[in-house]
Design goal:
By secondary structure, the chain is α/β, with parallel strands linked by helices. 18% of the residues lie in helices and 32% in strands. The longest helix is centred in the C-terminal third of the chain and has 19 residues. The radius of gyration is 31 Å and the shape is elongated. Bound molecules: adenosine monophosphate and magnesium ion. Adenosine monophosphate binds next to helix 4.
Length: 412
């Protein structure tokens, strides 16, 4: 039984990120949100493109208005109006001003904006009764970004602000990593699809769907292989095809020590190098990880539905992240929280207990899901958003103590 962190390290070391040349594709900016950038981004333009106004008001020469006050107001001649999108036609000379709007180009000769709230307009004259700061409300060309500097580097997941600057830098298309392809198969003679009429002894295959959703929410493409019975020849064929087609294969079931658990044996027959056979994690002790020469990584995950998801969150998610081209943040994120309930563990394995992380007055608090914490009980795993982690060697954590939490859903 490998400690979880060691297993995680072995898994990450077995994977290379997708190749930035061969494993990339061009996407339209409109569908690039969430994708991992596979090129460097820079712009030939400065930002802002030119000196412009940050407010609605008047463009003036600071020296004309620096002494303006309610007692000694300054009156200037308004020589031009510059709506956004137009180019100033006049140079502002002494005792002159231009009407200006947010984003408009600053006219030659002016250096400061007086906000319209501090002015009084009368025909072609404007009276200013508050002295501004020098260069106030002018956004200077290149003050946010200078042409040619690096703007975005490959390996980041693009979010809304990133998309905004890509638009600003005039990228209507860009290169992103392709999404990893993850094959999913459920193994077991007892399994049937959700639309079948259940016979005694049969179980509906939930793992295929749960893992498919998990894969999609990790920005990867699920390939649904289906249910494969516990028959070595059928398993071998399905596994070989999945290994040939996918970057990662996830199979559930058949990795324990039962008479019908064939996965490890078949992986070896197919030329796989078994790297991990079990991990000191509860639930989810049986975990087979095998590497293949074609760089496919195979995860033989336990069949119990809760164990299957815990294995995915703890070990598969970092693998997908590294594979996807993301430069960092592969490991699960643990958050400190206080526990509302006492938490217990056998002490010999890193133990995960599911429940809800809530913010109580802004402070994260974990409450254990009610009902059975059996690895076969999916029912109370639903509608939880967090796993509390009890480290190996620890048998209990008292209510009110600080614990580490892995978020598995949204925090409300
Ligand atoms: P196994 O790991 O094959 O020994 O399976 C452990 C338990 O998980 C058994 O009770 C199985 O019936 C159940 N199980 C296995 N695969 C699935 C699946 N795809 N969906 C739901 N339950 C499953
Ligand atoms: Mg089985």
């Amino acid at each position: 039984m490998l400690p979880a962190q060691e297993a995680e390290q072995i898994i990450l070391n077995l994977l290379e990120p997708l190749n930035i040349q061969q494993d990339s594709e061009i996407v339209n900016l409109k569908s690039a949100g969430g994708r991992v950038l596979a090129q460097s981004i820079s712009s030939k333009l400065d930002f802002p493109y030119w000196d412009n106004s940050a407010m609605d008001g008047y463009a003036v020469r600071y020296e004309d208005v620096q002494k303006a006050s309610v007692e000694t107001p300054v009156t200037l001649e308004v020589v031009e109006e510059i709506p956004a999108g137009s180019v100033p036609q006049k140079t502002i000379s002494s005792q002159q001003a231009a009407r200006i709007f947010t984003g408009s180009m600053l006219p030659e000769g002016s250096d400061t904006i007086v906000i319209q709230e501090n002015t009084q307009r009368n025909g072609n004259l404007v009276t200013i009764s508050v002295s501004p700061q020098p260069r106030q409300f002018v956004r200077h060309r290149g003050s946010f970004y200078q042409a040619g500097e690096s703007m975005l580097k490959p390996g980041i997941a693009l979010d809304a602000p990133d998309i905004a600057i890509l638009a600003t830098a005039q990228y209507s298309e860009l290169k992103v990593y392709r999404r990893p392809r993850i094959a999913i198969l459920s193994t077991g003679d007892e399994l049937v699809t959700p639309d079948s009429s259940l016979q005694p002894g049969q179980i509906v295959d939930s793992n295929q769907y749960a893992l498919g959703s998990f894969v999609s929410s990790n920005d990867a493409i699920p390939i649904f292989v289906g249910i494969v019975p516990d028959q070595p020849d059928k398993l071998k064929k399905a596994m070989a095809q999945a290994i040939a087609e996918a970057d990662i294969v996830l199979s559930t079931g058949g990795v324990s020590v039962g008479d019908y658990d064939y996965i490890d044996e078949i992986l070896e027959e197919l030329g796989g190098q078994i790297q991990i056979r079990s991990v000191a994690v509860k639930p989810g002790k049986p975990l087979t990880v095998a590497s293949f020469d074609n760089s496919c990584l195979y995860f033989g995950i336990p069949g119990n539905p809760v164990s299957a998801l815990v294995s995915c969150w703890r070990f598969v998610q970092p693998a997908i992240k590294k594979l996807s081209g993301l430069k960092h943040n592969w490991q699960p994120t643990f958050i400190n929280a206080t526990t509302k309930n006492e938490l217990r563990s056998g002490g010999t394995r890193e133990t995960y207990l599911w429940g809800n992380l809530n913010l109580v007055g802004g402070v994260p608090e974990f409450s254990l899901a009610t009902g059975s914490h059996s690895s076969g009980n999916l029912i109370n795993l639903s509608q939880t958003n967090a796993l509390a982690m009890i480290p190996i060697g620890q048998k209990s954590i008292a209510a009110g103590e600080s614990i580490k939490i892995m978020l598995t859903g949204q925090l409300y």
